[in-house]
Structure formats: C-alpha cells, structure tokens
C-alpha cells in the first residue's frame, strides 16, 4: 500500500487521491467537454395566465444529453457545475442562447413574452455578472425588459449585501428579477422586503402537496397574499391538476407554470405553443 505524505507531513490513509477531488476533476472535464461538443440545449416552459389564457413568460431550462449516458438531470449536473465553477461559462451560454431564441421568436412575429433564466448562487457572486449580462444583451440586441433572471434564496444567504448591490445594478440595466422556489427557505420574508424583486415563484412543494388538507391551502394562501400585498407578480410552479388550478384561481393566483399546461418544450415545440396564445 502506497503511503503518501500530506503537506502537513502526516501520512494519509489508503489511496493517494482524495475521491471527492478526483470526482470533481472528472466532472470538470466532462462538463467542459459538454460545452465544447454542444451537448447542452435549452427547453422552454410556458407560464400561463389562466384568466386571459395568455402566455406571460417562458422559463429556459438547461438540458444535457451525454453521448453515452443520455439525458442527465439538471438536479445532478448543476451542483457539479457550481462546484467546479463551470457554471460561469455554462450560465453565460444559457443566457446568450435564451436571448437569441427570444429575439428570433419576436422577429418571426410570435407573441413577445419575457424569457426567464435561472442564475445559480455562484453566478450571482461572480464579480463580472452584471457586465456579462449587459454584454449578452448588447450582443444579441434583446431589449432588457424581455429578460427575467430567477434566483433562489440560497444565492442571497451567502452575502446579502453583495446580492442587494448586484440586484440593483441588474434592475438598472432594465432586467427583472424573480425569486424562485419561494417558501422553502426560512428567512424569505426579510429578503422580499429589502430586495428589488419583480416576481415571486411559489415553490412546487406548496402546490404539489395540496389535497383537501386545509392547512396546506392556508399556507399557500398566505404566500400568495404576501406576494400580492408587496405588489409582486405571483407565479405558482408545478401545477399539474385541474384541482390545483381551481384552488389557485380561488386564491387569486392567476399565473401558473406546470405540466397541466405544458412540460418544458424544445425550442420548435415551444414556438408552436407560443403561436397558440391565448390558449383558452
Ligand atoms: P426550477 O428553476 O425551479 O425549475 C422548475 C423545475 O420544475 C424544472 O425542472 C421543471 O421541469 C420542473 N417542473 C415544471 N413543471 C412541473 C410540474 O408540473 N411537475 C413537476 N413535478 N415538475 C415540474 P428541471 O428542468 O429538472 O430543473 C431543475 C432545476 O435545475 C431548476 O429548478 C433550476 O433550479 C435548475 N436549473 C435548470 N436549468 C438551469 C440553468 O440554466 N441554470 C441554473 N443555474 N439552474 C438551472
Ligand atoms: Mg426557475
Ligand atoms: Mg422553481
Ligand atoms: Mg430551483
């Protein structure tokens, strides 16, 4: 058995390579390869206003098809992209692709709707984020009000002051910001009041677990009321059934995203869906 000397002089046990480091090293290679080999694509999921039937937005969702492993779920590879910092170039690719697509749809006369792009905590903390967003808007020619950036509470937790500064700068660019997965964290309330959010996306779990349980409905109702009283646009995520639609409607939440309306669609399918708006 090989015994390696660590920097501090102590002998390490077993294998000479830290398995976690080795795994990340591998992930970094595979993911940077994926970017070069164009294995990434975007799907788009419509956000529907149920009273007008109009589509009020499209969320861009990253997809990765590895040549041998097939589709890999974002919940698996996004954390790896974060840990290896590859989320920076990948995130830029996502933003640029989404902006180009939105421009292209508007140019062929489809109803103009904003595109939402997810930002990871690492991206929000990156010193060049605002510059990068401005550059992509310039390069693609997309007007800033067609872009919405989605951030989660995790991105705010790290450094609230920095988040506040960056969000203000993004807002000054003319981009709007939504809070994704709202309700899951514990301190969302304070953040909401202090930061320039435009949209509140209510986490799937609050919508999904709705049955006849009146406690769940009360919680959902409170979240919706909170968003509305702060003058935020409120979107319910993960809406799957007609029963959920009806309950949300009765709670005055009219904007919804979920399988009930559409799964995330490849660009061509998404364009067909857009062409149908209003969908009632
Ligand atoms: P998210 O931003 O909250 O996106 C919503 C997720 O819910 C998507 O999963 C979507 O496919 C799924 N979904 C939508 N409607 C329904 C429904 O009715 N029922 C159920 N069960 N699920 C529904 P997806 O595409 O697997 O993405 C998962 C997460 O990965 C996203 O959650 C987001 O946090 C992250 N992600 C995806 N694309 C990107 C990206 O380009 N950049 C970053 N940083 N994160 C991304
Ligand atoms: Mg999102
Ligand atoms: Mg979400
Ligand atoms: Mg999320």
Automatic annotation (TrEMBL):
Taxonomy of the source species: Bacteria, Bacillati, Cyanobacteriota, Cyanophyceae, Pleurocapsales
Domain EAL: 24-278
Superkingdom per UniProt: Bacteria
The protein's name in its UniProt record: Diguanylate cyclase
Species name: Hydrococcus rivularis NIES-593
Position of the signal peptide: none
């Amino acid at each position: 058995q090989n015994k390696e000397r660590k920097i501090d002089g102590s002998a390490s046990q077993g294998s000479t390579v830290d398995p976690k480091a080795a795994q990340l090293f591998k992930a970094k290679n595979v993911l940077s390869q994926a970017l070069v080999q164009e294995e990434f694509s975007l799907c788009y999921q419509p956000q529907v206003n149920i009273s007008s039937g109009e589509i009020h937005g499209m969320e861009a969702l990253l997809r990765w098809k590895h040549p041998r492993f097939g589709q890999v779920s974002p919940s698996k590879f996004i954390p790896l992209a974060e840990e290896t910092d590859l989320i920076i170039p990948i995130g830029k690719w996502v933003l640029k692709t989404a902006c180009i697509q939105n421009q292209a749809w508007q140019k062929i006369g489809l109803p103009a709707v904003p595109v939402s792009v997810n930002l990871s905590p690492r991206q929000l903390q990156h010193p060049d984020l605002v510059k990068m967003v401005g550059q992509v808007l310039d390069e693609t020619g997309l007007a800033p009000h067609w872009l919405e950036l989605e951030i989660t509470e995790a991105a705010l937790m790290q450094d609230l002051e920095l988040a506040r500064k960056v969000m203000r700068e993004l807002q000054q660019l003319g981009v709007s910001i939504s809070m994704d997965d709202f309700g899951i964290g514990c301190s969302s309330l304070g953040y909401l009041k202090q930061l320039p959010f435009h949209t509140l996306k209510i986490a799937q779990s609050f919508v999904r677990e709705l049955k006849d349980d009146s406690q769940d409905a009360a919680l959902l109702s409170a979240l919706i009321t909170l968003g509305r009283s702060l003058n935020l646009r409120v979107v319910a995520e993960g809406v799957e059934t007609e029963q959920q639609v009806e309950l949300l409607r009765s709670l005055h939440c009219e904007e919804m995203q979920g399988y009930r309306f559409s799964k995330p669609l490849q660009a061509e399918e998404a364009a067909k869906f857009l062409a149908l708006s209003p969908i009632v």
